[in-house]
Design a protein that fits this description.
It is built from no helices and 19 strands. The protein is mainly β.
Length: about 200
């Protein structure tokens, strides 16, 4: 498993109709969101309008999670959901989706047969968490520190603070491994597991 730490200097921020969106990671790393050439993409958006409409993304599956505030989603002709912080909804990107609520959210976009899970953990100061990974033929884990300060230990110690991330990639030679996390203060972290080996 190879890890890289990402900070605000590594992210890309752009404007969309409802506010701004920050691309945290994209795969392959030379892929383009505007050209829809990615297999997966992780981003965080700030919704500045009380009401907005999501960009249509045919062929893309989406997972969305508000990080603060309440987010109401109206999937036109499908269903409605009301999400509190750290609750999530998954839906096809081709759905027409209107949203209500000024929030910061976290987004995972997936194409083809890519599989992913998104989890939230809140750790108290001094609390530890072991993330056990079975390994895939090809995949990634992405750890995002929304607030707080973390120490992660695998082959070396890496410190993550507000808004910083850790991206780990593995290949066919990887076996089961454990990533140890310790919170230096109260911390909210998001963990994305991605399997793009199919």
């Amino acid at each position: 498993m190879k890890f890289q730490k990402l900070t605000i200097n590594d992210y890309k921020t752009s404007v969309w109709s409802g506010g701004t969106t920050t691309e945290l990671a994209i795969y392959p790393q030379n892929a383009s969101y505007s050209e829809r050439s990615f297999l997966w993409r992780i981003s965080s958006a700030k919704v500045d309008l009380e009401k907005s409409t999501f960009t249509s993304l045919p062929g893309v599956r989406r997972i969305i999670m508000p990080l603060d505030g309440e987010l109401k989603l109206h999937h036109v002709g499908q269903r409605e959901v009301c999400l509190q912080p750290f609750e999530q909804d998954s839906f096809p990107g081709e759905w027409t989706t209107d949203s209500e609520g000024k929030v910061q959210d976290f987004n995972v976009m997936l194409k083809d047969d890519v599989e992913s899970t998104l989890e939230h953990f809140m750790l108290k100061a001094g609390e530890e968490l072991n993330i056990v990974e079975p390994g895939f033929n090809s995949g990634s884990i992405f750890l995002y520190c929304f607030r707080g300060e973390l120490e992660t230990i695998h082959s070396r110690k890496i410190v993550l603070q507000n808004g910083e991330s850790l991206w780990g990639s593995f290949d066919r030679e990887d076996e089961i491994f454990t990533l140890k996390i310790k919170a230096n203060n109260v911390s909210d972290i998001l963990l994305v597991r991605i399997n793009h080996s199919k």
